[in-house]
Amino acid sequence: SVGGAGGAGGTAGLFGDGGDGGAGGESLGKAVPGGAGGAGGAAVLIGNGGNGGKGGLGAPPGTSGTGGAGGQLLGLDGLT
Asked: Does residue 66 sit within a domain?
């Protein structure tokens, strides 16, 4: 089994920051890979994209999940 993936951050409204992605699930002492971090939410017009979530800590070492991508600033092009 694998640690669960973190949820994606929510998209912002016109003005505001995207939500941060959730962290990936951790192995908690069992020999399972960590889950991937969720992607950060997008900002639409003004604001910052959310941070990607951290990958979960896996066991054995080297099997941790990958971190999620940061959210994008969509800009006016993202509205059309």
From this structure: no
